[in-house]
Specification:
314 residues, alpha+beta, 8-stranded mixed beta sheet, 40% helix, elongated
């Protein structure tokens, strides 16, 4: 049988953890009992890395326990957080992984009580698989003492409701993004702006997928008069990618076609979106830069082709 239920998964992980030299855990949610389970299962020589999502709703509701992050951090586990993570993967010595529906929680692993009905499977990992896993870690933010302190302060000062409200807007920028320094050489469609800011924003559907995406990734806000701001744009992965690309160019500029090709070449989404869709997303990016780069970047159209340029070279 290739499928593993939650109670069998916890037994299998406990056995593998005890003899592993390295462990990587990618999980949407994390609880204290699972953190204790990990620490009780490994040897002092085992190196462990973990990524958890840790959104405001997750922390306030307890789906991710800040005490679990603190415990792992205190015991030398290299913890990371990732804003959009939903995967569940347990990697042993970079050789094979357990992948499925089970979060690293008491319910996910049936560590106590009835638990959830989860299914997982064990698979051998290729070099390409391990490369993707490394990129996921590179694309996340390392947990530091400052991050833990700010997360604790956020949880203690927030209301009991897990709903995202005005007190949590911009949370990634205010609490986490000072630690961010994206260096990975892969992009995802979700890294780019989905809202076209040249449209009439006063009539924008704020329940649309595009708008909610940009709220989450860039902290987009639009008032009743159609005026927009994006709290997190300059801390975003795509902005950092773009400014590094421009800085590497002798003339500090890129034209629309060249930028589109660079973005296309770095996208790892499967299936790959149509090139026309990528062009629209890059167009959205240029408008974001025009509106939210605070004069650091300029957009113009010499010779009928749109150009983006670092302003200090003009």
């Amino acid at each position: 049988m290739n499928l593993i239920t939650a109670d069998h998964l916890s037994n299998e992980l406990e056995a593998q953890f005890s003899s592993a030299q390295s462990i990587k855990i990618i999980t949407g949610y994390l609880t204290l009992s699972a953190a204790e389970f990990l620490l009780n299962s490994i040897s002092d020589e085992t190196t462990v890395q973990l990524i958890v999502r840790a959104r405001p709703q997750d922390l306030i509701s307890g789906a991710t326990d800040i005490d679990a992050i603190k415990l792992l951090f205190k015991n030398g586990v290299r913890c990371h957080i990732h804003r959009t993570l939903h995967a569940k993967l347990y990697v042993i010595d970079n050789k094979y992984g357990f992948i499925g529906s089970a979060n690293f929680t008491s319910n996910g692993l049936k560590l106590s009580g009835y638990g959830n009905f989860e299914l997982s499977t064990k698979t051998k990992l290729t070099d390409k698989d391990n490369g993707l896993i490394r990129e996921v870690f590179n694309d996340s933010i390392m947990v530091t003492k400052r991050v833990i302190e700010t997360l604790e302060g956020f949880v203690s000062s927030s209301s009991a409701t897990p709903e995202l409200d005005s007190s949590t807007k911009g949370w990634w920028n205010e609490l986490i993004a000072p630690e961010a320094s994206y260096t990975c050489d892969r992009l995802y469609i979700s890294d780019l702006p989905w809202v076209n800011l040249e449209q009439d924003l006063s009539s924008l559907d704020e329940s649309s997928e595009n708008f909610l995406h940009d709220v989450d990734v860039f902290g987009l806000e639009v008032d009743k008069n159609g005026n927009a701001r994006a709290l997190n744009f300059q801390k975003s992965k795509i902005y950092q990618f773009l400014t590094r690309e421009l800085s590497s160019k002798e003339n500090k500029e890129l034209y629309f076609g060249e930028l589109t090709s660079k973005v296309h070449d770095l996208l790892v989404d499967e299936p790959m979106p149509y090139r026309s869709d990528i062009k629209q997303l890059v167009f959205n990016l240029l408008i974001y830069c025009k509106v939210f780069s605070m004069g650091i970047l300029t957009i113009d159209t010499p010779s009928y082709s749109t150009r983006i340029k670092l302003a200090n070279r003009i």
